[in-house]
Design brief:
membrane; 0% strand; 2 domains; mainly alpha; CPP1-like
């Protein structure tokens, strides 16, 4: 079976006006927005048609709208900064970003805020801080695993966020170091930063 022509890929005839071709491209791109390979195929077909029409225009055989006369220049720019690289990066980022519902945000805010308040109010009993921190770790793993049902991924993200929170919290304490700062206060402060990082990751990461 012979490969489809650019016109066939977009589902238009070779005599179709440019506006129809552009609408077909936009429609297919929207329809297959979740398929990176299909989008690339659609864009390639569209570019091939544009270049063909520009060539025919130079030969005086067809009329091409002025708004695509810079397609060749744009193609040159794209060759230096491939669009596919940006699309691939954007698609990769999208795999990790989640848009939670209001109820989801409310639930996680309540849990991690409660843990933060407990750690803050129970500062004198510093032995309880690691217990609450461990509870926060399990809660974060639970929420992340619930989204994708991938325990190892949830565990890895949680441990990464735990380390990040400790580094940020410890750095802030060092930056604003006070000789009167107690060990209990330092533990509580770092734990609260960790809970905030957990809230962000459990709410906005897959």
């Amino acid at each position: 079976m012979s490969e489809k022509t650019p016109y066939e890929k977009l589902g238009v005839s070779e005599t179709a006006p440019f506006e129809e071709i552009q609408k077909a491209k936009d429609h297919l791109s929207q329809k297959h927005s979740d398929s990176f390979e299909t989008i690339e195929s659609i864009e390639s077909a569209y570019d091939a048609i544009v270049m063909e029409r520009l060539k025919l225009r130079q030969e005086g055989k067809v009329s091409v709208p002025d708004n695509i006369r810079f397609a060749e220049h744009q193609r040159e720019i794209n060759s230096k900064f491939p669009v596919s690289n940006f699309k691939s990066m954007f698609h990769w980022i999208q795999q990790f970003i989640d848009i939670p519902s209001f109820n989801d945000i409310l639930l996680k805010t309540g849990i991690f805020l409660a843990l933060s308040l407990l750690v803050g109010f129970l500062r004198p009993q510093s032995s309880l801080t690691p217990l609450f921190l461990a509870l926060g770790v399990f809660v974060n793993i639970y929420f992340l695993n619930k989204k994708e049902n991938k325990f190892n991924r949830a565990l890895l993200i949680t441990l990464t966020m735990l380390s990040l929170g400790m580094i940020i919290g410890g750095s802030i304490i060092q930056l604003f170091y006070d000789p009167n700062t107690t060990r209990e206060f330092s533990q509580s402060f770092v734990s609260i930063i960790v809970f905030f990082i957990f809230w962000l990751s459990s709410s906005f990461l897959h």
